[in-house]
Amino acid sequence: MIDNREPVFDVHQTELITRLCHRKYGVGADGLILLNTHRHYDFEMVYFNADASRAMCGNGSRCAVHLAHQLGMIGEQTTFLAEDGEHTAFIRNGQIHIRMVDVQEIQKEAEGYFLNTGTRHFVSIVHNLADLDIVQQGRKIRYDARFQPQGTNANFAEMIDGTIHMRIYEKGVEDETLSSGTGVTAVALALAAAKNIPSPVTVHTQGGQLSVSFTRTADHKFTDIYMIGPAVKVFEGTVFV
């Protein structure tokens, strides 16, 4: 994350973004986030995947709200701008609640569910999550002709003793990542629709536990969606380029 209130980072420096995100030759990250000022919002979050493509990032949004709060830009509530438009958020008891976009449709496919929670996700319900080759299976879905040219993220979920567990292959990173806020939201809504699970839904990822609350309308749409979880600063430093 870069404090970019006084613009110091050129968004066209794609080579620099990929170099900083590189796990062997850079800081190492799934993506890079700029925290910008904005004339009409409390702040703007600009998110780049590790390959420098832009996207909405749910977990990144929580981190951006956390940083904006630490910097004194916001109080306990905020309205900010991200790649997929306006979002509201609030902080309560150490948990950051990000309002996600409404989901108008969940497309049922033979082998899963396709939906957009700010970015495109495909959700497969599996029975061997721990042993699944996520990279191999994820790439098949991510590059499937049905989802081109944009592609899609590939999520794999399993109910274990009544608890939802998931793993994800992320486009733009082109690998498995430990968590995804928009992916968790997609999994929660897909399983809520498939198994009639009430709000809120808790999802366990390799990176931690998140919850998703929502309102399900009579015509099977999802509104008032909040992705909920903590954000913790790991370290800070200065990058010389």
Domain count, please report it. Answer: 2
Instruction: State the low-pLDDT regions, or none.
Output: none
How much of the sequence lies in strands comes to 35-45%
CATH top level class name of the largest domain:
Alpha Beta
Rg over C-alpha atoms, rounded to the nearest angstrom: 17 Å
Structural class call reads alpha+beta
Instruction: Tell me the number of helical segments per DSSP (H or I, 4 or more residues long).
Output: 4
Q: Could you say which overall geometry the principal axes of the C-alpha atoms support?
A: globular
Element-level helix/strand string: EHEEHEEEEEEHEEEHEEE
The CATH homology group name of the largest domain: Diaminopimelate Epimerase, Chain A, domain 1
What is the CATH topology classification name of the largest domain? Diaminopimelate Epimerase, Chain A, domain 1
Overall average pLDDT = 95
Q: Could you walk me through the main structural features you see in this protein, from its secondary elements to its overall organization?
A:
- With 241 residues, the chain is of the alpha+beta class.
- The chain is built from four helices and 15 strands.
- The protein folds into two domains: 2-97, Diaminopimelate Epimerase, Chain A, domain 1; 107-228, Diaminopimelate Epimerase, Chain A, domain 1 (Roll).
- It has helices spanning 14-21, 58-70, 134-142, 181-195; strands spanning 2-3, 31-36, 43-49, 77-82, 85-92, 95-99, 107-109, 112-116, 120-125, 153-160, 163-170, 175-177, 201-205, 208-216, 222-229.
- The chain has a 15-stranded mixed sheet that branches.
- A hairpin with a 5-residue loop joins strand 14 (208-216) and strand 15 (222-229).
- The protein is globular.
- The relative contact order is 0.14.
